[in-house]
Amino acid sequence: MSENETVPENEKLNDPPLPRLDRPRYGVDAPAFPAAIAALGTASLLAATRWRKGRAVTAATGAVLLASTGVYLHTTLCGKLRVWERELDRIGLKGHEQLLDLGCGRGAVLIAAARRLPEGRAVGADLWLGKDQSGNTPDATRANASAAGVLDRVEVHTADITALPFADASFDVVTSALVIHNIPADEDRYRALDEAVRVLRPGGRLLVADFWPMARKYAEHLRHAHLAQATLRPLGPAYWYGGPWLGITLLDVIK
Question: What pLDDT is stored for residue 4 in this prediction?
Fold first, then answer.
């Protein structure tokens, strides 16, 4: 993400006709990563068939890499969806809230939230980078919202999450899933968190899912900068990107 990048105009819901989908399709997170792990795993297994010395270790390495690829794909295609369904149920939305999803991508969290907001609004903000999610475009998000039957309550914006184009205290809930760590500099990550707090109403909820070391830093920043009530909770095997070493933690903050 380039902090000096010119942000295009916000996307509108009445843009050209959307592709018709029978169900939402959310793509693969950071698609180059599982592709690389799968390639290394396959190469290791092939090497093990040709080498005598170190054959067992090489074969075991290949098997672990391919198993990690399977765990990764399970998480990105269905595991994370179940986790977010659970977490959105946990916060007890009433149905009229205004919710903002930072780095919404193709809308997995955004649409799950919109289903719970028949009288509210689910707003997504993203820079639409394909390296972060395959097929990542505003039209893909709208098409998924249409397939889920919630397009009337979904809005998407092209926006840098370190400088959100929304007024103070605009939202009841702000969510973010595996996005803030993609910002290169710590100070800019903290700026994104500050922006999330700024647009939250008093008593509002911030939910950030990210890797444990990053989530811990976010919690420390929010506690010191905003005296916010912040808790951390691991989200379990359904949110492992390959294994427990890349497990996801939820930062839960009340403003």
Answer: 40
